[in-house]
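Got a spare moment? Tell me how you read both lines of this record:
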Amino acid sequence: QVQLVESGGGLVQAGGSLRLSCVASGTIFKMIAMYWYRQAPGKQRELVAAITSGGSTNYADSVKGRFTISRDNAKNMVYLQMNSLGPQDTAIYYCYTPGNRWGQGTQVTVSS
């Protein structure tokens, strides 16, 4: 059974940075793509960033140049480095992998 556990969320002032982490268990991590999604209050869940098993990355237009997704296959970890945060980035951030596998989410709140 695949389990994803996120951490690293919190409260930060606008312009600040956070790094989210997600640890995966129960899967051959190095062979799977990993994704970060977010859901703001009253909005649909949206894709933020993706990284393939080979390390290719993709980003939502709204975070390009500010967020960086990376992975450490030796640790079964995927990260989301978030810089220049703004109030529009306030959301619950979820780790996801294909097969409808979601983490429990971690709250990110950016104050203006």
The radius of gyration is 13 Å.
